[in-house]
Amino acid sequence: MSEARDKATLAKAAAPEVARAPRGVRERALRLAAENIRAAETDIVAANARDLERARAAGMSEPLQDRLMLDGSRIRAIADALDDIARQEDPLGLVLGGSTLENGLRIERVTVPLGVVAMIYEARPNVTADAFGLCVRSGNACVLKGGSAARESCLAIVGACRVALVEAGLPQDALQYVDDDAAHTQTAELLGATGLVDVLIPRGGASLIRACVEGAKVPVIETGTGNCHVYVHEAADLDRARAIVMNAKTQRVGVCNAAESLLVDRSVAAAFLPAMVSELAAAGVVVHGDAETRAALADRPDLLSSFVDATEEDWGREYLALEISCRVVSGVDEAVEHVNRYGTGHSEAIVSNSYEACEAFLAGVDAAVVYANASTRFTDGGVFGLGAEIGISTQKLHARGPMGAAALTTTKWLARGEGQVR
Amino acid sequence: MSEARDKATLAKAAAPEVARAPRGVRERALRLAAENIRAAETDIVAANARDLERARAAGMSEPLQDRLMLDGSRIRAIADALDDIARQEDPLGLVLGGSTLENGLRIERVTVPLGVVAMIYEARPNVTADAFGLCVRSGNACVLKGGSAARESCLAIVGACRVALVEAGLPQDALQYVDDDAAHTQTAELLGATGLVDVLIPRGGASLIRACVEGAKVPVIETGTGNCHVYVHEAADLDRARAIVMNAKTQRVGVCNAAESLLVDRSVAAAFLPAMVSELAAAGVVVHGDAETRAALADRPDLLSSFVDATEEDWGREYLALEISCRVVSGVDEAVEHVNRYGTGHSEAIVSNSYEACEAFLAGVDAAVVYANASTRFTDGGVFGLGAEIGISTQKLHARGPMGAAALTTTKWLARGEGQVR
């Protein structure tokens, strides 16, 4: 079966029409999609109920069921997000630079759409509308493939969006939805659709992303795996450090910008760790600590029920749960080295009142976002003012950190002359 | 043998030191490398003579031998290019944007090195010094792998550059050279060096580039394949059109920005093609034309010795020789469609005095550089004012068109706060 390839071909054929549509037409498509989704609330809830029923029967966990569930207020939020995207600055046609060459040729570099954006994600119906919105905002056609558990919900949303495309005068083929299949044949086809797909963005767990990065022949942007550290330097305000660690670890545990590892300077370990681990334990967090962490807790045997000895694997783990690894280090150099060795290049933080230590950490850590004296939880396209976000890139090419509509554009040089030859 | 992986590991370990070196230190390394290369002229010429002797014995073609050959003036040009790179603007530490968030967090996006750049190229010794220069300019370590025919020349240049690194106070391991081997084991290792190589740039013929793009697990930037078109619109100044076609096709035939295909509007085919084909034939160019091209030459049987009927494959061929395909089209829409179907996204040109036609072609063609009334031969980092060039990207992600030192950087967000939590 070549469903994915056929759909990518349709998207590619529709892409030029979206690319050349004026911003008003693209914005109208987004507003109409928002309206259609609001109008289809009953149908979307019914489709979602069928997905949920199957999911429950298949034994899906509660948190995943919650992620899949749509009610009136969530559907309105999905529609509102499309209206927000319609209000965003247009990322197309920006002149990024240019000059007149010695020979009189006028050159300029302008932003243009990528063409066809493919996205593979899990059973999260809202990603369907977000991805559609950001692709239309940036003049791209898209091929979406959501998790099979969200199939009916996604198709209901896709239907509303495709009608909106037609109502705005755009080709409905600019939005394609590929059904998941147990054998992942469609995924493999999308990964191999060179010449049809300009970029593929996987969004989901580490195994989905790994499979895409390793199997893809089309360009991929790696997103989202976050083994984020908070490093407590000896010159830290220890109360502030505890507040940042608690926020980064526990405010929302299943997200990629949550902290998964704590590094503490040796000189403050005894002063900091007992109260810190006590607070973490009270919040239900298990600490995977090294021998020095254990030693620092020697006077608090009551905390050992929330403590396990860390193994080498713990330093690289993204728990996405009420667990955190903890290691005592000698100072900022060792902290930077540890972060660059075990981190995933997502979000990293130092807590310190030392100017020198903060600047050394900011400069030395190789990650999309590096914080001094703030929680890692702020890494987010909305928070950073980029509008809606299609994912957080943890790679270095093309886009790094939160990706908004601008990350779905490329550039083109235009050169105007009067017969210049070389 | 894991030579390539071991060398990539050494480069990765050296990369942070290059990344944090002040611009003055990196510039000094480049100037010292230029000096060392000039001082080693006799040794480099001798090494090159041994390469050339082996190449001749192996039956290498004259043009390839010419590309491999180094004499005093070419060696001085290589050194001068390093001095030029040392004078270029530093691409690191540029603040591309930022803001203060509602909560007081100050965020900024700054340019930083990619880390380790790998480059695979053919038997062109000068690429060794250029790649080294652009990598040091942009604060990256590099792993270079040139064609085996240039082995001794490349190693002589690498030796001079590694000494310069040490003299400037940088680690010599920041420059690694991997020997070619018949089984291409080293190439395969570089392609698979995830976690060690941040980007791999193949530079050479279409088969080398294809092998890298298809085999790589590390991020690759596709460069250089150029099936470039010149489209002669019905409102073209026909003399200007002939001058542009002659320049684009014949000024230098082996380069990626040379024209490989000519599109001509039906309404001017009879007026344009006889003189055009006559001029091409006089320069030794064979025209692979469609039936309408042949028909337009009906009165000139003398030209048929330079004419062959085009096949479907001709539309997609990058001849890199005195050959050109030629097709008659109905107008700008068909021309754009043809270019987008068969082109490689490199450099495309329209010749016309119609404002509307030029703007439609500039907007509609999906390529790195689109020209109105100028030769495709201008696509070049030096010409575009980017300084030395590491290649011309024909992909859309990360970099498109000529790539200078800035294309070897990524960005990092820095966020400074006072204990902000979410």
Task: Produce a short descriptive summary.
Chain A has helices at residues 3-20, 23-39, 41-57, 62-68, 72-87, 125-137, 151-167, 185-191, 206-215, 238-250, 266-282, 291-296, 332-342, 355-364, and strands at 95-100, 106-113, 116-121, 141-145, 175-177, 199-203, 228-232, 259-265, 286-289, 307-309, 323-329, 347-351, 369-374, 391-393, 401-403, 409-420.
Write the layout of secondary structure elements.
Two copies of one chain form a homodimer.
Chain A: H1 3-20, H2 23-39, H3 41-57, H4 62-68, H5 72-87, E1 95-100, E2 106-113, E3 116-121, H6 125-137, E4 141-145, H7 151-167, E5 175-177, H8 185-191, E6 199-203, H9 206-215, E7 228-232, H10 238-250, E8 259-265, H11 266-282, E9 286-289, H12 291-296, E10 307-309, E11 323-329, H13 332-342, E12 347-351, H14 355-364, E13 369-374, E14 391-393, E15 401-403, E16 409-420
Parallel strand pairs in A: 3-4, 3-6, 4-5, 7-8, 7-12, 8-11, 9-10, 9-11, 12-13
Antiparallel strand pairs in A: 1-2, 2-16, 14-15
Descriptive account of the structure:
Two copies of one chain form a homodimer. With 422 residues, the first copy, chain A, is an alpha/beta fold. Chain A has two domains: 3-222 and 395-416, Aldehyde Dehydrogenase, Chain A, domain 1; 228-378, Aldehyde Dehydrogenase, Chain A, domain 2, CATH 3.40.309.10. Chain A has helices at residues 3-20, 23-39, 41-57, 62-68, 72-87, 125-137, 151-167, 185-191, 206-215, 238-250, 266-282, 291-296, 332-342, 355-364, and strands spanning 95-100, 106-113, 116-121, 141-145, 175-177, 199-203, 228-232, 259-265, 286-289, 307-309, 323-329, 347-351, 369-374, 391-393, 401-403, 409-420. The first copy, chain A, has a seven-stranded parallel β-sheet, sandwiched between helices. Chain A has a four-stranded parallel β-sheet with strand order 5-4-3-6, sandwiched between helices. In chain A, strands 1-2-16 form a three-stranded antiparallel β-sheet, with no helix packed on it. In chain A, helix 2 (23-39) runs antiparallel to helix 5. At the A-B interface, strand 2, helix 10, helix 14, strand 13 and strand 16 of A face strand 2, helix 10, helix 14, strand 13 and strand 16 of B. Strand 16 (409-420) of chain A pairs parallel with strand 13 (369-374) of chain B.
